[in-house]
Amino acid sequence: MDVSTLLFLAAIYAASATFSGLSGFGFSAIGALTPFFLPPQLGICLLMLLSVFTQALSLGSLRDEMRACNASWQRGFLPCAAGGFLGLPLGLKILARAPAHALVPALGALLVTYSLYSICKPKSLALPARETSLGGALAVGTIGGIVGGFSAFPGSALVVWNGLKNVPKEQGRALTQPFILVMQLIALALLACSQPALFDAPLWSLFAMAMPIAWVGNRAGLAIYKRGSHVNFRLLTLAALGVSGLSLVLKGVLLT
C-alpha cells in the first residue's frame, strides 16, 4: 500500500470520526469511500471495527448524559434494538438479492432530501412531542435494521425519527448511539462466523494504524457537540446527515 493511499484513508477516517463524534452517527456512511482504496470485504470490515471503536468512545464520554436520559434508554433503546434484530436479516437478504449500486444511492438521495427539507421546513411542522410508543420504537428499530443490513447505516432511521419529533440532542444520542453500536457488533459477529479469514493480520494492522486518527477526530467532534446549543446541534446533525447521504450517492455512482 503506497503513501498516497494511506493519506487518503487517514483523511476519510478523520472526517468520519469527527462527524460521528459530533452527531452520534454517520461513520460508516462518510467512510463509504474506503472500499475504493481497499478490497471491498476488508474495507467494510475495517469500517465496522472503527465505527464500534468510535461509538464506544462517545458512549464512555457521554455516560452522565446517558444516565440523565435513563427513562428514554429503557423505553426507547431496548425496543429499537429488538426491532433492529428483526429487521437486520431482511436487510441482508435485500443486499444479497438487489444490486447495491441501486439501493445505496437511493438511500443517499432520501437522506439528502430529508436533511434539506428539515433545514428549510417551518418549525411548527413536527410530530407530537409525546413519548414514543412501544410499537413506534419497534417499527423505527426494524426500519433501522433493514436499512443497516443493506447499507451499513443503521442509525439513519432513528436520526430521521428524532428530527421529526424535535427530540433534544441528549435524548437523541441516548437512543441512536447504542443502537448503532449493537447493530455493528451483530454485523461483525455474523462476518466472523461466515468469513473468519477476514480477521487476519492485515485487518488488525490497519485497524491499529487508524485508531489514533479516529480517536482524535472523535474527540474533536465531541468537543463541538458539547459546546453547541440544541438548535446548532440540530442543524449540524442535519448537515452531517446530508453529507452522509451524498457519500452514499457517490458510492453508488462509482460502483456502477
Molecular structure report:
The structure is a single chain. This protein has 256 residues and is an all-alpha fold. Helices cover 81% and strands 0% of the residues. It has eleven helices and no strands.
Tell me the span between the first and last alpha carbons: 25 Å
Largest sheet: none
Oligomeric nature of the chains: single chain
Shape: globular
**What is the total tally of β strands?**
0
> Overall pLDDT, averaged?
79
What percent strand?
under 5%
| SS-based class | mainly alpha
List low-pLDDT spans.
Answer: none
Helical element count?
A: 11
**Rg value:** 17 Å
Portion in helices: over 70%
Return the string of H and E elements. HHHHHHHHHHH
Features:
single chain; 256 residues; mainly alpha; globular
Brief digest:
The protein has 256 residues and is mostly helical. It has helices spanning 3-23, 27-30, 40-61, 63-68, 70-97, 100-120, 134-151, 156-164, 169-194, 201-227, 230-255.
